[in-house]
Amino acid sequence: MTVPHPLPTLYGLKQCDSCRKARRLLDELGVTYRFIDLRADATDAEGLLDSALLAHFMAAVPWETLLNRRSTTWRQLDAADREALDADKARALLRQHPTLLKRPLLVTDSDVIVGIDDARYSALA
User: Fold this and answer.
1) In sequence order, which residues have a C-beta less than 8 Å from that of residue 22 and are 6 or more positions away?
2) Strands (E), the chain
3) Which residue in 3, 16, 77, 124 is the catalytic one?
4) Distance, CA of 60 to CA of 40 (rounded, Å)
5) What is the pTM of this model?
6) Which of 47, 83, 96, 108 is the 20 to 30 Å CA partner of 74?
7) How far apart are the C-alpha atoms of 8 and 11, rounded to whole Å?
8) Cα separation of 45 and 23, whole Å?
9) Integer Cα distance of 57 and 112 in angstroms
């Protein structure tokens, strides 16, 4: 998987309400983009998130921002996995559990936008 791509790329999950909302917004704004499903299209044969993609995300955004501590996946982790987090432990968790990433993630040629940001999305139109 090559990162970055000249076309804005929205990373998320097909069934995620926030991701569907982001797709609708981008469509309404007339923004041409690619959609990559984090589970289906951004993982290797073992289901691990692509390491180059994760490195790109983590270079652009602090890991604390990327880690979704309100997700079902987070709540289902063992307490030991949720404690004493640092960048390395967060990287390992995010790689093993791509659904721990806050979504959607919109990657442009110069930015990684976490969540829906109407003003920044509109600037792409």
Assistant:
1) 10, 12, 104, 106, 116, 121
2) 9-12, 34-37, 105-107, 112-114
3) 16
4) 23
5) 0.91
6) 108
7) 10
8) 27
9) 7
